[in-house]
Design brief:
The complex is a heterodimer. By secondary structure, chain A is mainly alpha-helical. In chain A, about 85% of the residues lie in helices and about 0% in strands. Chain B has one domain (about 10-230). The chains are: A mainly alpha, B mainly alpha.
């Protein structure tokens, strides 16, 4: 557990010193939200689509952040060295996923606030608790799946196009669940808060499934990778 | 001539078994074509468009069979100590043919849909899951094409194939739940309304047999071709090293 935290802290320190999230990924994600609004060009339509658009922007941002997370590991075979330090490769997996989770969660909070400002989304009453739950569970799923597929393509030629091709179909259930639950939290006509909680439960199952899969699959994927 | 060219010319991916399978596949396919177009009757409701079924259903069945084989072969390749590369090649060949057949399923399905439902695509759970399955295996094939040594390719692609097995039920479940909150795709129910008489059923069954034989034939050839190109990598490298050495030795003598 200590090692997991150390690895997460290492990644977060790198992020803090380079400020990639703040300087590049956050502006990119906000730009995506603005461009969606411009492309849809209808306020009722934008409000109806707000939840889905937030999570689409999150998916795109995850793709970039995962690559960034593994780019720092393949220089000088750092990943091999890291694997040599830990008792089990799964600790590297959870450490990197934890760091990604912290960053993605921060991004998700900003994007939800942006959707309130830009799209006119409203969160009230019981919606707030649901929204926070969804942000935590869906971001956890994103971080776990992102880390898992990140190590698959780490050190590969053309990884920038391979990662989305592999990871996005896997993230489809998460996108559906997170978008629907967020829509419920925003107070939609088509889905109520109780249904939103059902989707949040599915997001938990999703995170557990891919957390376990990642813990098992990380070792055969990471060994001899760099 | 370099000697690996000779190696390739002497090796072929065909054997007596594949030739027999190939011929039976051709004959069965010929029968299916004749029966589907000329012998079987048109459907009462759907008319001639029902004939698409004789291709659509078998290709869908083969695509799913192919992905099951990919998963099983990947599991074997990962667990077993010996012949891991053999299982990996079967997994890759099966996925490749599976993607081909699934593309045919999607194309024939949307053409059939246009004729019977009036639309190329419905966001129905079964269709949506199939589409995600298709994209997943396209990604799997893309990873296989990345040039690494066969042992690493085997391990990595086996893990991805097993993750796909994990992903598909989740996709299907969430899509079913997603659609159940929206309107029912009622038009789809016509799918089950096709009345199959004896000959239609037999033709459909023959179609499944024909496409299964085709699948087996393709996978056998494809996995042997992969084996040959893996060999060629090694032999070709050795040969060029030998050639460079000889060149170098000759150059040294000349000076």
């Amino acid at each position: 557990m200590n090692m997991v935290l150390t690895i997460a802290r290492k990644d977060l320190t790198i992020e803090w010193r380079t400020r990639t999230l703040l300087a590049r990924i956050l502006p990119f994600a906000l730009l995506v939200l603005v461009l969606f609004a411009v492309a849809l060009d209808s306020e009722p339509l934008i409000l109806r689509a707000a939840a889905g658009l937030v999570w689409l922007a999150m998916l795109f941002a995850t793709m970039i952040m995962v690559q960034r997370s593994f780019d720092v590991e393949i220089v000088d075979s750092a990943l091999d060295a890291l694997l040599g330090f830990v008792s089990s490769p799964s600790k590297v997996f959870f450490g990197k996923a934890l760091s990604l989770f912290v960053q993605l969660f921060a991004l998700a909070v900003v994007l939800v606030c942006a959707s309130v400002v830009l799209y006119g989304a409203r969160v009230e009453g019981s919606g707030v608790v649901l929204l926070v739950t969804v942000l935590v569970t869906a971001t956890l799923g994103l971080a776990l799946v992102g880390t898992l597929y990140g190590v698959v393509v780490a050190n590969m030629n053309g990884r920038d196009s391979l990662l989305p091709l592999l990871a996005l179909p896997v993230l489809a259930p998460l996108l559906i669940g997170a978008a629907r639950a967020t829509e419920a939290a925003f107070g939609s006509d088509t889905i109520d808060v109780a249904n939103g909680w059902a989707w949040a439960a599915i997001l938990v199952v999703y995170a557990v499934v891919f957390g376990s899969a990642g813990a098992v699959a990380f070792a055969p994927l990471a060994q001899g990778e760099s | 001539m370099h000697h690996w060219h000779k190696v390739n010319r002497d090796m072929t991916t065909g054997t007596a078994t594949t030739r027999v399978i190939g011929w039976i596949a051709i004959l069965t396919t010929a029968w299916v074509v004749v029966s589907a177009f000329f012998l079987t009757p048109a459907d009462v409701i759907q008319g001639d468009s029902v004939r698409i079924m004789y291709v659509h259903v078998p290709t869908a069945w083969i695509a799913y069979l192919a992905f099951v084989i990919t998963a099983v072969a990947s599991g074997c390749s990962l667990v077993r100590k010996h012949r891991t590369l053999g299982f990996d090649r079967v997994a890759g060949a099966s996925a490749e043919v599976g993607v081909l057949f699934m593309a045919m399923t999607l194309i024939t399905g949307s053409l059939w849909g246009r004729l019977t439902w009036g639309t190329f695509w419905q966001w129905d759970p079964r269709l949506t899951t199939t589409l995600f399955l298709f994209v997943t295996y396209v990604g799997y094939l893309a990873i296989r094409r990345v040039d690494v040594d066969p042992v690493r390719r085997a391990r990595r692609s086996a893990v991805i194939a097993l993750l796909a097995v994990l992903e598909i039920p989740l996709v299907h479940f969430s899509v079913v739940l997603w659609r159940s909150l929206h309107q029912e795709a009622s038009v789809l129910n016509t799918d089950g309304d096709v009345r199959l008489d004896g000959l239609m059923l037999f033709t459909l069954f023959s179609g499944v047999v024909a496409f299964t034989l085709m699948f087996v034939w393709l996978v056998m050839h494809r996995q042997r071709l992969t084996a040959l190109s893996d060999v060629e990598r090694v032999v070709g490298l050795d040969a060029s090293i030998a050639a460079r050495r000889a060149e170098h030795a000759g150059g040294v003598r000349a000076t």
